[in-house]
Specification:
The complex is a heterodimer of chains A (113) and B (115). By secondary structure, chain A is mostly beta strands. Chain A contains no helices and eleven strands. In chain A, strands 2, 4, 5, 9, 10 and 11 form a six-stranded mixed beta sheet that branches. A five-stranded antiparallel beta sheet of chain A has the order 1-3-8-7-6, with no helix packed on it. With 115 residues, chain B is an all-beta fold. Chain B contains no helices and eleven strands. In chain B, the strands form two sheets. In chain B, strands 2, 4, 5, 6, 9, 10 and 11 form a seven-stranded mixed beta sheet that branches. A four-stranded antiparallel beta sheet of chain B has the order 1-3-8-7, with no helix packed on it. Chain B is globular, with a radius of gyration of 13 Å. Chain B starts with a strand and ends with a strand. Classes of the chains: A mainly beta (113), B mainly beta (115). The A-B interface holds A 4, 9, 32, 34, 41-46, 49, 51, 89, 91, 93, 98-101, 103-106 and B 4, 40-45, 48, 56, 91, 93, 98-100, 103-109.
């Protein structure tokens, strides 16, 4: 039973345009959400997070939106740059998971020049 | 600040052989995690340490997997005997505090291939 789902295995975006990566979750007890970025042969690196008391968090070119009623979050990257090409993982935690991260399967983002 | 260091980077072994992975977390990080990541999937937690105590090992296949974190710093993860299905990337991560104050920092992982 996948509690965190990233339904798009891959996404291709033109350089300079907006990239939108989506993530859905099923557990209403999740209250903290994170996005990690992973390059090949490297470990995931933390990108941005959001608490359930907020609906938006912004850090430079990266913005995460949380829609609790829809159990959906999204990561917006604008403008997209070639170095953004990577696999992006969504992760969630809450009391039900003993505050351990439950991860999605990842979305591979390809930025086209 | 030095990152999480893992070794080896790659390991190829025959099934039924033992294998061990080593992790050195970021200095001062009390919490250490071992994850397994299969191709096309997110990381799955195997074990979490708070200092030298294993506080969550519910996902660790204890018949063949073992881990230790002596003195609450470095950690080793062992598989004996390895099976074909153990082929994966084994990731170590560390954090200083709760997730909201200190996100996980990952090492580059050990890619294990069991033949």
């Amino acid at each position: 039973d996948q509690q965190v789902k990233q339904n798009s295995p891959s996404l291709s975006v033109q350089e300079g345009r907006i990239s939108i990566l989506n993530c859905d979750y099923t557990n209403s007890m999740f209250d903290y959400f994170l996005w990690y970025k992973k390059y090949p042969a490297e470990g995931p690196t933390f990108l941005i997070s959001i608490s359930s008391i907020k609906d938006k968090n912004e850090d430079g070119r990266f913005t995460v939106f949380l829609n609790k009623s829809a159990k959906h979050l999204s990561l917006h990257i604008v403008p997209s740059q070639p170095g953004d090409s990577a696999v992006y993982f969504c992760a969630a935690s809450g009391m039900d998971s003993n505050y351990q991260l439950i991860w999605g399967a990842g979305t591979k983002l390809i930025i086209k020049p | 600040e030095a990152g999480v260091v893992q070794s080896p980077r790659y390991k190829i072994i025959e099934k039924k052989q033992p294998v061990a992975f080593w992790c050195n977390p970021i200095s001062g990080h009390n919490t250490l995690y071992w994850y397994r990541q299969n191709l096309g999937q997110g990381p799955e937690l195997l074990i979490r340490y708070e200092n030298e105590e294993a506080v969550d090992d519910s996902q660790l296949p204890k018949d063949r997997f073992s881990a230790e974190r002596l003195k609450g710093v470095d950690s080793t993860l062992k598989i004996q005997p390895a099976e074909l299905g153990d082929s994966a990337v084994y990731l170590c991560a560390s954090s200083a505090q709760s997730l909201e104050n200190s996100p996980l920092h990952f090492g580059n992982g050990t890619r294990l291939t069991v033949t």
